[in-house]
Automatic annotation (TrEMBL):
It comes from Pseudoalteromonas holothuriae. The keyword Transcription applies. Keywords: DNA-binding, Transcription, Transcription regulation. CDD domains: PBP2_CrgA_like (cd08422). This is HTH-type transcriptional regulator DmlR. One of its GO terms (biological process) is DNA-templated transcription. Residues 1-59 form the HTH lysR-type domain. Belongs to the LysR transcriptional regulatory family. Transmembrane segments: none annotated. PROSITE patterns: HTH_LYSR.
């Protein structure tokens, strides 16, 4: 038995949730995955995974073993990185997840500039608005917008504050009711970004006062920021969005800022990464670059 290979296979099976997914991820056959798990269980003289034809469940011993070997494998990886990255120039691949709309408009230009300055670094970008599991998807870094991050299993650095505003098109406002304060939103069609940390719970502040609006189901709910803006431009309703997304439209009058006096609950852009990636020089330098880039 190649023990290092076996424990690596075991880790990926647990993290990906199936033998088939691990086989695809590691470019091995499903039979090879099963062989490694069986040999590891025989060596340890205890079952690590209970499996049927449809499902698999990690045993208590398997969970304990996974926690130990994950740390060992991460330490081995970090030891390799400390040597590989000890030279004066960086090389290798960084796998990054970024949101679709903000990624195209703001983040991708920053990544292109980073690559220009570090020509031996390769970047693999996954553009998706959903929050991907960092470990399961083999991500080095994910750039995410939202409120304060409280996940203790990851590390994070704030890159940029994203003040949000209420806005709507002149066509919508011409036929809509008054909107003098956030409480009036109950009488409006509110366009909802479904992946927000609080899609139907909007909080506003003014002069120390707080107004909370719990929205009724609107007629348009979407999981993409660009599609949300297009709906607002089409006159379908009111949206709450980062000011940066609609700065041009506000300037030319295609959208109207409806909350100049009320401050919406703050969101920010974060770089998040698994704890063990903190030892990677290329990941640290990539995030340091983004921090400085967004200070401009």
């Amino acid at each position: 038995m190649d023990k290092l290979r076996a424990i690596t296979v075991f880790r990926r099976v647990i993290e990906l949730g199936s033998f088939k997914a691990a086989a695809e991820d590691m470019a091995l056959s499903k039979a090879a995955i099963s062989k490694n798990i069986n040999e590891l269980e025989d060596y340890l003289e205890t079952p690590l995974i209970n499996r049927t034809t449809r499902k698999m469940h990690i045993t208590e011993s398997g969970q304990l073993y996974y926690e130990h070997i994950r740390t060992i494998l991460d330490d081995l990886s970090n030891a390799d990185l400390s040597i590989i990255e000890s030279s004066n120039h960086l090389r290798g691949t960084i796998k990054v997840s970024i949101p679709m709309t903000f990624g195209v408009l703001q983040i991708n230009p920053a990544i292109c500039e980073f690559m220009r300055l570090n020509p031996e670094i390769s970047i693999e970008i996954i553009m998706v608005d959903e929050y991907l599991d960092l470990v399961k998807n083999g991500l080095d870094v994910a750039l995410r917008g939202g409120g304060n991050l409280k996940n203790s299993t990851i590390k994070s650095r704030k890159l940029l504050d994203l003040p949000r505003i209420l806005c709507a098109s002149p066509d919508y406002l011409e036929h809509a009711g008054k909107l003098d304060s956030p409480s009036d939103l109950h009488d409006h069609n509110c366009l909802v970004y479904s992946l927000s940390s609080s899609p139907r719970h909007w909080v506003f502040r003014k002069d120390g006062k707080v107004q909370v609006v719990d929205l009724s189901p609107g007629t348009y709910v979407v999981n993409n920021g660009l599609a949300l803006k297009q709906a607002a431009l089409a006159g379908l309703g009111v949206m709450l969005t980062p000011e940066l997304f609609v700065r041009r439209e506000i300037k030319v009058g295609e959208l109207i800022n409806l909350s100049p006096d009320w401050q919406a609950e703050s969101h920010s852009l974060y770089a998040v990464y698994p704890y063990h990636k903190e030892q990677s020089q290329k990941v640290r330098i990539f995030i340091d670059f983004l921090v400085e880039y967004f200070k401009k």
